[in-house]
Amino acid sequence: MMKQFLLFSLLTGLATHVIGQRTGTVQADKTLWYRQPATYFEESLVLGNGTQGATVFGGVQLDKIYLNDATLWSGEPVRADMNPEAYKNVPAIRDALKRGDYKGADELHKKLQGKFSESYAPLGTLFIDLAHSPTAQNYYRQLNLADAVSSVRYEVDGVTYTRDYFVSQPDQVMVIRLTSSKKGALSFSVRLNSLLNNNVSAASNTLKIKGYAPIHAEPSYRGNIPNSVVFDPARGTRFTTLAKLKAGDGTLTTTDSTVGIRGGTEALIFVAIATSFNGFDKNPATNGLPDESLATNRLNNAFAKSYTQLRQAHTTDYQRFFNRVSLQLGPGTAPALPTDERLQRYAVGTKDTDLEALYFNFGRYLLISSSRTPSVPANLQGIWNPYMRPPWSSNYTTNINAQENYWPAENTNLSEMHGPLLTFIGQLAKTGAVTARTFYGVGGWSVAHNSDIWAMTNPVGDFGQGDPMWANWNMGGAWLSTHLWEHFTFTQDKTYLRQQAYPLMRGAARFCLAWLVPDSTGRLITSPSTSPENQFLTPTGYRGSTLYGGTADLAIIRECFLQTSAAAKLLGTDPAFRDSLDRALMQLYPYKVGKAGNLQEWYYDWRDVDPKHRHQSHLFGLYPGHHIRPDRTPDLAQACRKTLEIKGDETTGWSKGWRINLWARLWDGNHAYKMYRELLHYVVPDGVKTDYARGGGTYPNLFDAHPPFQIDGNFGGTAAVAEMLVQSDEGEIRLLPALPDAWAVGSVRGLRARGGYELALEWAGGKLKTVTVFSTTGGQTTLISGGKTKAVSMKAGQSLRVNW
Ligand code: FUC
What we know:
It is a single chain. By secondary structure, the chain is α+β, with helices and mostly antiparallel strands. The chain is 30% helix and 24% strand. It has 19 helices and 36 strands. The strands form 9 sheets. It has a 9-stranded antiparallel β-sheet. Helix 10 (415-440) runs parallel beside helix 13 (494-515) and helix 17 (653-665) runs parallel beside helix 19 (712-725). It is globular and about 85 Å long. The two termini are 31 Å apart. Residues 1-24 have low confidence and may be disordered. Bound molecules: alpha-L-fucopyranose (FUC). Residues 380, 392, 397, 401, 470, 533, 614, 652, 654, 706, 710 line the site of alpha-L-fucopyranose.
């Protein structure tokens, strides 16, 4: 894997605040803390080892911890050929569009629909009932991003009680340590429950819950339709959760459904979880993994170790990733206030650069904690979901959300965490080949706007019930394939490019090549097309979704072709295919600038039904794509800026995350910063309430509010901070391209740039002072900052410091 740059591997920020051990200090940019337990999910503190997740409420007399496992979903392997003759409707839709019959095209488009995705399932809840009075003094709760441990401390009747919680990747268990300051004052019992079909038992010091996920769960937005959640004892993913107590002292207590300690001083709770999920194409009931023995082995292995050993292994593992990057955005301005109070002060305009860094650090923490399961990427809620029918099924929404989760993966030096998405793409290519053939009548592979753990790729809508506005978009494969190339450009791993990435990129491009048709002038367009979730208004007043030549489709295809062609060239392979891509690129229907100076979203200069719509997929070429840039395509960049101005800044969380990146790519640091502040706008926690109008922001636990909670905004915002500080392509690295006035002084170490570089920057007075470049693979690049350029040529493993 990646060689570590000595400069960056120096452990930073090790002064951790470990409550149980009473050492160290709170770090304003690495500690989330509160003076009260969580009431709402959006106040809880989340932990995870990339597969198992825990949501800690930290209550005084009753502590509640939601448990999750990334591999527990409703359903079973998808039958991709669910609508085998759907493609036969394509010519009729094209004809309707040619006639200008947009209403007819919208109706016919519904014939290209299949089933809805399955749903991420809630595994269960662990309760700790504490046998002391409910009135606590000096309550304190924290999540320490420096070591990925959450802690609670309070006093009851003069006794200090503490709990430390972490979910270990190396040992595959959750560990909770409970203490009391007075000998024998710790008495508690543990319960487990689950919304899923389950069975609880207790024996000696171990609780066991066995259960299984539904065979089907409908998206929550479909409301109370019949059979919205269906359990079948013979089908679906099984799970086992075990909770086992280890007591330093005191008496062990056991009932039918609880285990506990009476009169102890220190105790540990071990929680092991396993599911039968055995891959997207294996039946989890008949061909599943042995969940019970997996959980038992994990439990026994961890149980044999000491707390110190387990905690040390957890911290070492986590810090291997987290400590790669450190960020200072100015002199520390943070008051010693709880995180929720800091957010509220920030919302009224108070300066808090440490809070801005904390949000960035938290985003990296979330990716390390939610994305370490091969082929199972972080979903809409990462891995943290308590609901049977979570918002939008907590699925993979591939018209922006799943991809946005991975925007910080490469540039913030968490390339390994990109892995689950990259390998998932390989599975999508398999079901997606069936989708391409049966829904569109072409080769290659494609993904529509939703997916799930079963790698479903079909357009959703329950065979004609869905609105084409969202159901029929089919550019998910082409968009996802750009992640493969991004991974290569950052790592320069040519073997990966040749063996894994290129064949998949080629398949995505092949679908697009075959799906394109000439317009009346011979220019290549998509038909039918939709522009993610927005609607047009035709001159005759029809509000529609289905059209030909939508700009977003063409922008994504353009990027996909440019990258696939570049990959073929680099690998010296596939000349004929590369030729066909290059020819198609020249024939693509060009971008158009509309009357208002905006980048046109539709083939014609039609009005939008909602000009402030949250999606901005037609700006794909500016970000996450690379083919629109202020210096290379100034007119198009200006049209993108105009589009963003027309849209305004008030929008949902993920959309703000995206727009900050777009403003950064327009090299407008102050506008990017304005929107970053708005992303951190305090949102009152209130459970699951979907409210597009209320505007996105941040809950007390720093979770992104769509609203409701959706993790993509966290990741979009994290990526954007890096994008404001460093931008790169294969030939150049721009340092501080979008530095806002508010971050006039600062430093960052460990960000990555395309071409295989790792960087450390220091700046003051809004200008770069020094840059240290480390090259992992060797190569040439040009450093650019503040109107100066410097070409560098480096050997693999070389490090170069430049005083700017
Ligand atoms: C898309 C967006 C919504 C939401 C959902 C999960 O449909 O338009 O805002 O983020 O995905």
